[in-house]
Protein backbone atom coordinates (compact mmCIF):
# COMPACT_ATOMS: atom_id res chain seq x y z
CA UNK A 1 0.00 0.00 0.00
CA UNK A 2 1.35 3.43 -0.98
CA UNK A 3 2.39 5.76 1.82
CA UNK A 4 0.13 8.77 2.33
CA UNK A 5 1.60 12.29 2.17
CA UNK A 6 0.43 14.86 4.71
CA UNK A 7 1.40 18.54 4.47
CA UNK A 8 1.02 20.54 7.66
CA UNK A 9 2.01 24.05 8.61
CA UNK A 10 2.89 26.13 11.61
CA UNK A 11 1.27 29.53 12.00
CA UNK A 12 4.22 31.58 10.73
CA UNK A 13 4.26 30.11 7.20
CA UNK A 14 0.69 29.00 6.65
CA UNK A 15 0.25 31.49 3.76
CA UNK A 16 3.03 29.63 1.88
CA UNK A 17 2.01 26.13 2.99
CA UNK A 18 -1.46 26.68 1.52
CA UNK A 19 0.09 27.50 -1.87
CA UNK A 20 2.41 24.48 -1.61
CA UNK A 21 -0.55 22.19 -0.89
CA UNK A 22 -2.48 23.57 -3.88
CA UNK A 23 0.55 23.11 -6.14
CA UNK A 24 1.03 19.56 -4.85
CA UNK A 25 -2.66 18.81 -5.32
CA UNK A 26 -3.48 18.01 -1.73
CA UNK A 27 -5.45 19.68 1.05
CA UNK A 28 -3.36 21.25 3.81
CA UNK A 29 -3.55 19.13 6.97
CA UNK A 30 -5.61 20.19 9.98
CA UNK A 31 -3.51 21.44 12.89
CA UNK A 32 -4.91 22.95 16.08
CA UNK A 33 -2.55 25.19 18.06
CA UNK A 34 -3.90 26.03 21.49
CA UNK A 35 -2.61 29.14 23.25
CA UNK A 36 -2.58 29.24 27.04
CA UNK A 37 -2.90 32.38 29.13
CA UNK A 38 0.70 32.19 30.39
CA UNK A 39 2.13 32.28 26.84
CA UNK A 40 2.59 28.54 26.31
CA UNK A 41 1.08 26.87 23.26
CA UNK A 42 0.36 23.29 22.21
CA UNK A 43 0.05 22.03 18.62
CA UNK A 44 -1.98 18.91 17.84
CA UNK A 45 -2.66 17.09 14.57
CA UNK A 46 -6.41 16.84 14.16
CA UNK A 47 -6.24 13.84 11.82
CA UNK A 48 -4.61 10.42 11.79
CA UNK A 49 -0.95 10.48 10.64
CA UNK A 50 0.16 6.99 11.68
CA UNK A 51 2.47 5.49 9.04
CA UNK A 52 2.32 8.59 6.83
CA UNK A 53 5.02 10.86 5.36
CA UNK A 54 4.66 14.19 7.17
CA UNK A 55 5.96 17.42 5.65
CA UNK A 56 5.82 20.24 8.21
CA UNK A 57 6.23 23.72 6.69
CA UNK A 58 7.58 26.47 8.95
CA UNK A 59 10.20 29.18 8.48
CA UNK A 60 12.13 29.96 11.65
CA UNK A 61 12.39 33.75 11.50
CA UNK A 62 11.89 35.81 14.68
CA UNK A 63 10.31 35.49 17.16
CA UNK A 64 11.87 32.25 18.38
CA UNK A 65 8.33 30.94 19.08
CA UNK A 66 8.29 30.01 15.37
CA UNK A 67 11.23 27.66 15.88
CA UNK A 68 9.78 26.23 19.09
CA UNK A 69 6.40 25.68 17.42
CA UNK A 70 8.16 23.65 14.70
CA UNK A 71 9.98 21.59 17.34
CA UNK A 72 6.71 20.81 19.14
CA UNK A 73 5.05 19.78 15.87
CA UNK A 74 7.94 17.44 15.04
CA UNK A 75 7.71 15.90 18.52
CA UNK A 76 3.94 15.51 18.18
CA UNK A 77 4.37 13.80 14.79
CA UNK A 78 6.94 11.39 16.24
CA UNK A 79 4.61 10.50 19.14
CA UNK A 80 1.74 10.05 16.66
CA UNK A 81 3.79 7.34 14.87
CA UNK A 82 4.35 9.15 11.58
CA UNK A 83 6.51 7.09 9.20
CA UNK A 84 8.76 9.92 8.02
CA UNK A 85 8.97 13.44 9.46
CA UNK A 86 10.37 16.06 7.08
CA UNK A 87 10.74 19.70 8.10
CA UNK A 88 10.27 22.13 5.20
CA UNK A 89 12.07 25.24 6.46
CA UNK A 90 11.99 27.79 3.61
CA UNK A 91 14.01 30.25 5.71
CA UNK A 92 16.41 28.66 8.21
CA UNK A 93 16.77 31.21 11.01
CA UNK A 94 19.89 31.71 13.14
CA UNK A 95 21.96 30.71 10.10
CA UNK A 96 24.14 33.81 10.34
CA UNK A 97 25.51 32.43 13.62
CA UNK A 98 27.36 29.57 11.91
CA UNK A 99 30.81 30.02 13.50
CA UNK A 100 32.62 31.66 16.40
CA UNK A 101 33.47 35.07 14.99
CA UNK A 102 34.62 36.28 18.42
CA UNK A 103 35.29 34.63 21.81
CA UNK A 104 32.52 33.34 24.09
CA UNK A 105 29.64 33.23 21.62
CA UNK A 106 27.36 30.36 20.67
CA UNK A 107 27.15 28.68 17.27
CA UNK A 108 23.38 29.01 17.09
CA UNK A 109 22.97 27.33 13.68
CA UNK A 110 24.53 24.15 15.07
CA UNK A 111 22.39 24.33 18.21
CA UNK A 112 19.21 24.65 16.10
CA UNK A 113 20.31 21.64 14.00
CA UNK A 114 20.78 19.63 17.21
CA UNK A 115 17.37 20.67 18.52
CA UNK A 116 15.60 19.66 15.30
CA UNK A 117 17.36 16.30 15.26
CA UNK A 118 16.60 15.68 18.94
CA UNK A 119 12.92 16.48 18.32
CA UNK A 120 12.81 13.68 15.76
CA UNK A 121 13.14 15.25 12.30
CA UNK A 122 14.40 12.81 9.65
CA UNK A 123 15.05 15.20 6.74
CA UNK A 124 15.33 18.94 6.15
CA UNK A 125 14.23 20.83 3.04
CA UNK A 126 15.41 24.45 2.94
CA UNK A 127 16.25 27.27 0.53
CA UNK A 128 19.47 29.31 0.28
CA UNK A 129 21.18 28.67 3.59
CA UNK A 130 23.34 31.61 4.63
CA UNK A 131 26.34 29.28 4.53
CA UNK A 132 26.49 25.96 2.65
CA UNK A 133 28.45 24.28 5.44
CA UNK A 134 25.38 24.40 7.73
CA UNK A 135 24.27 21.24 5.91
CA UNK A 136 27.11 19.50 7.75
CA UNK A 137 25.64 20.50 11.12
CA UNK A 138 22.88 17.93 10.57
CA UNK A 139 23.12 14.16 11.00
CA UNK A 140 20.05 13.73 8.77
CA UNK A 141 19.75 14.40 5.01
CA UNK A 142 19.40 18.05 3.95
CA UNK A 143 17.88 19.01 0.59
CA UNK A 144 19.40 22.46 0.06
CA UNK A 145 17.50 24.25 -2.70
CA UNK A 146 18.61 27.40 -4.50
CA UNK A 147 16.40 30.38 -5.32
CA UNK A 148 18.38 30.66 -8.56
CA UNK A 149 16.07 27.99 -9.99
CA UNK A 150 13.23 30.55 -9.93
CA UNK A 151 15.31 33.75 -10.17
CA UNK A 152 17.28 32.83 -13.32
CA UNK A 153 14.20 32.34 -15.56
CA UNK A 154 12.86 35.68 -14.28
CA UNK A 155 16.16 37.44 -15.04
CA UNK A 156 16.17 35.98 -18.55
CA UNK A 157 12.65 37.31 -19.15
CA UNK A 158 13.85 40.85 -18.31
CA UNK A 159 16.00 40.81 -21.50
CA UNK A 160 18.42 43.38 -20.08
CA UNK A 161 20.78 44.56 -22.87
CA UNK A 162 23.94 45.03 -20.78
CA UNK A 163 23.52 42.64 -17.88
CA UNK A 164 26.15 42.33 -15.16
CA UNK A 165 25.78 40.45 -11.87
CA UNK A 166 26.99 41.94 -8.61
CA UNK A 167 27.57 40.99 -4.99
CA UNK A 168 26.94 43.55 -2.24
CA UNK A 169 29.90 42.15 -0.28
CA UNK A 170 32.90 39.86 -0.74
CA UNK A 171 31.12 37.05 1.11
CA UNK A 172 28.63 36.75 -1.73
CA UNK A 173 31.25 36.54 -4.48
CA UNK A 174 30.64 32.84 -5.06
CA UNK A 175 26.89 33.41 -5.43
CA UNK A 176 27.33 36.27 -7.94
CA UNK A 177 29.88 34.21 -9.87
CA UNK A 178 27.44 31.28 -10.08
CA UNK A 179 24.69 33.51 -11.51
CA UNK A 180 27.17 35.09 -13.93
CA UNK A 181 28.22 31.66 -15.19
CA UNK A 182 24.62 30.52 -15.71
CA UNK A 183 23.71 33.76 -17.50
CA UNK A 184 27.00 33.97 -19.44
CA UNK A 185 27.90 37.43 -18.21
CA UNK A 186 30.47 39.15 -15.97
CA UNK A 187 30.18 40.16 -12.32
CA UNK A 188 31.44 42.87 -9.98
CA UNK A 189 31.93 42.99 -6.21
CA UNK A 190 31.38 45.55 -3.48
CA UNK A 191 33.96 45.63 -0.72
CA UNK A 192 32.57 46.88 2.58
CA UNK A 193 33.90 47.52 6.08
CA UNK A 194 31.76 47.44 9.21
CA UNK A 195 32.36 48.84 12.68
CA UNK A 196 29.41 46.89 14.10
CA UNK A 197 26.55 44.63 12.95
CA UNK A 198 23.97 46.16 10.57
CA UNK A 199 26.12 49.26 9.97
CA UNK A 200 28.38 49.73 6.94
CA UNK A 201 31.09 52.39 7.27
CA UNK A 202 32.80 52.32 3.86
CA UNK A 203 32.13 50.56 0.55
CA UNK A 204 34.17 50.37 -2.66
CA UNK A 205 33.43 48.86 -6.07
CA UNK A 206 35.63 46.22 -7.68
CA UNK A 207 34.84 46.13 -11.41
CA UNK A 208 33.27 48.31 -14.11
CA UNK A 209 29.52 48.96 -14.32
CA UNK A 210 29.48 51.90 -16.76
CA UNK A 211 26.34 51.65 -18.91
CA UNK A 212 25.46 48.27 -17.38
CA UNK A 213 22.16 46.90 -16.09
CA UNK A 214 23.28 45.66 -12.68
CA UNK A 215 21.62 42.86 -10.72
CA UNK A 216 22.71 42.49 -7.09
CA UNK A 217 22.16 39.01 -5.64
CA UNK A 218 22.07 38.04 -1.97
CA UNK A 219 20.46 35.43 0.26
CA UNK A 220 19.13 37.77 2.98
CA UNK A 221 17.95 41.37 2.93
CA UNK A 222 17.69 42.53 6.53
CA UNK A 223 17.94 46.26 7.27
CA UNK A 224 18.70 46.87 3.55
CA UNK A 225 21.53 49.21 4.52
CA UNK A 226 24.26 47.33 2.66
CA UNK A 227 22.31 46.62 -0.49
CA UNK A 228 20.91 50.16 -0.81
CA UNK A 229 24.41 51.56 -0.31
CA UNK A 230 25.63 49.16 -3.02
CA UNK A 231 22.85 50.32 -5.37
CA UNK A 232 23.86 53.96 -4.93
CA UNK A 233 27.50 53.00 -5.50
CA UNK A 234 26.56 51.31 -8.79
CA UNK A 235 24.61 54.32 -10.04
CA UNK A 236 27.37 56.71 -8.94
CA UNK A 237 29.77 54.65 -11.06
CA UNK A 238 27.68 54.97 -14.22
CA UNK A 239 25.30 52.01 -14.13
CA UNK A 240 22.25 52.30 -16.41
CA UNK A 241 19.96 50.56 -13.90
CA UNK A 242 20.20 48.48 -10.74
CA UNK A 243 17.99 45.72 -9.39
CA UNK A 244 18.30 43.28 -6.49
CA UNK A 245 17.33 39.62 -6.18
CA UNK A 246 17.27 38.51 -2.52
CA UNK A 247 15.81 35.23 -1.31
CA UNK A 248 14.76 35.97 2.26
CA UNK A 249 13.08 39.37 2.90
CA UNK A 250 13.64 39.91 6.63
CA UNK A 251 13.23 43.66 5.98
CA UNK A 252 13.61 44.71 9.61
CA UNK A 253 13.54 48.25 11.05
CA UNK A 254 13.05 50.82 8.23
CA UNK A 255 14.30 48.54 5.43
CA UNK A 256 11.25 49.00 3.20
CA UNK A 257 11.50 52.79 3.49
CA UNK A 258 15.21 52.58 2.56
CA UNK A 259 14.38 50.54 -0.54
CA UNK A 260 11.67 52.97 -1.60
CA UNK A 261 14.12 55.88 -1.28
CA UNK A 262 16.91 53.99 -3.11
CA UNK A 263 17.84 54.05 -6.83
CA UNK A 264 16.61 50.47 -7.28
CA UNK A 265 14.31 49.91 -10.25
CA UNK A 266 12.89 46.94 -8.34
CA UNK A 267 13.81 44.45 -5.63
CA UNK A 268 12.77 40.83 -6.24
CA UNK A 269 12.30 38.55 -3.21
CA UNK A 270 10.63 35.21 -2.47
CA UNK A 271 7.82 34.35 -0.06
CA UNK A 272 9.95 32.35 2.41
CA UNK A 273 9.16 35.17 4.87
CA UNK A 274 5.94 37.24 4.76
CA UNK A 275 6.34 40.92 3.84
CA UNK A 276 5.48 43.36 6.62
CA UNK A 277 3.75 45.48 4.01
CA UNK A 278 3.58 45.80 0.24
CA UNK A 279 5.78 48.24 -1.64
CA UNK A 280 5.72 49.31 -5.31
CA UNK A 281 9.47 48.61 -5.54
CA UNK A 282 9.30 45.09 -4.06
CA UNK A 283 8.08 42.12 -6.12
CA UNK A 284 7.50 38.69 -4.56
CA UNK A 285 8.06 35.42 -6.46
CA UNK A 286 6.58 32.32 -4.87
CA UNK A 287 8.63 29.25 -3.92
CA UNK A 288 5.47 27.12 -3.62
CA UNK A 289 5.84 25.22 -6.91
CA UNK A 290 9.53 24.53 -6.26
CA UNK A 291 8.83 23.18 -2.77
CA UNK A 292 5.84 21.14 -3.95
CA UNK A 293 8.02 19.55 -6.66
CA UNK A 294 10.66 18.65 -4.08
CA UNK A 295 8.07 17.20 -1.69
CA UNK A 296 6.87 14.93 -4.51
CA UNK A 297 10.39 13.85 -5.41
CA UNK A 298 11.37 13.19 -1.78
CA UNK A 299 8.23 11.13 -1.23
CA UNK A 300 8.88 9.07 -4.38
CA UNK A 301 12.64 8.73 -3.76
CA UNK A 302 13.47 10.66 -6.94
CA UNK A 303 16.53 12.83 -7.59
CA UNK A 304 16.14 16.59 -7.11
CA UNK A 305 19.35 17.46 -9.00
CA UNK A 306 17.33 18.16 -12.16
CA UNK A 307 16.00 21.29 -10.42
CA UNK A 308 19.51 22.81 -10.55
CA UNK A 309 20.02 22.36 -14.29
CA UNK A 310 19.46 25.38 -16.55
CA UNK A 311 18.90 24.96 -20.26
Automatic annotation (TrEMBL):
Residue ranges occupied by any Ribose-phosphate pyrophosphokinase N-terminal domain in the UniProt entry: 6-120
Q: Which UniProt keywords apply?
A: ATP-binding, Kinase, Magnesium, Metal-binding, Nucleotide biosynthesis, Nucleotide-binding, Transferase
What the entry lists under InterPro entries is as follows: PRib_PP_synth_CS, Pribosyltran_N, PRTase-like, PRTase_dom, Rib-P_diPkinase
Q: Which top-level group of life is the source organism from?
A: Bacteria
What's its EC?
Answer: 2.7.6.1
Is Nucleotide-binding given among the entry's keywords?
yes
**SUPFAM superfamilies linked to this entry:** PRTase-like
How is this protein named in the record? Answer: ribose-phosphate diphosphokinase
Q: Which organism is it from?
A: Lentimicrobium saccharophilum
